[in-house]
Design goal:
Length: about 190
């Protein structure tokens, strides 16, 4: 309780407090963003496919055929050239999230990587990659990964680990099955 005899805080003091709080909040956000940049939350899955990397790469990069097999990257469009923008949705519902990542690296038959942000960079960013490693006997080990960064990521790790990991596994399984079907069809 304040003393009725004491004068009310002056406006300049209140303004300084607000400025200090704003600066402190900004420093916390910048620090959180810097920490997240250096310490991303990573999801990684692997699947061995009894098909050569060229077949798996052909399935992975044939965006027009995605509706036939890919449960996780709906309506994928764009060109696989560094600096170009891809476009896809998280699912086929009306409230699906639409992403427009930028292609960062393409090594045919070996590696594909893109990077995108949700709303504004630094809030919720993802760097998605597919690595294809040749296996003895002519197969392929596919590693799918995503490095999540941004100030919202620490609050979403449970959701990412539960939902996104399952989506990755579903895409891995579908890519496995589709690659074997393409190989068998010759």
């Amino acid at each position: 309780m304040t003393d009725p005899a004491s004068p009310p805080p002056s406006r300049p003091r209140r303004g300084r407090r607000r400025a200090l709080v704003a600066v402190a909040l900004l420093l916390v956000l910048v620090g959180a963003a810097a920490w997240q940049r250096a310490n991303p939350f990573v999801i990684e899955t692997r699947v061995d496919i009894a098909a050569p990397p060229e077949v798996v790469w052909g399935v992975l990069t044939n965006f027009e055929a995605y509706p036939e097999w890919n449960p996780g990257l709906v309506g994928m469009t764009g060109e696989l050239e560094v600096g170009r923008t891809l476009r896809f949705s998280s699912d086929s519902t009306d409230d699906a999230l639409t992403f427009e990542p930028v292609v960062r690296e393409v090594r045919p038959g070996q590696h594909l990587r893109w990077e995108g942000s949700l709303l504004v960079p630094g809030l919720f960013d993802g760097e998605h990659a597919f690595d294809l490693e040749p296996l003895p006997g002519g197969g392929t080990r596919l590693t799918q990964s995503e490095h999540f960064r941004g100030v919202l990521v620490p609050f979403l790790t449970g959701w990412l680990d539960d939902g996104t990991r399952q989506d990755f596994l579903a895409v891995d399984e579908a890519l496995h099955d589709r690659s074997l079907a393409v190989l068998a069809a010759g």
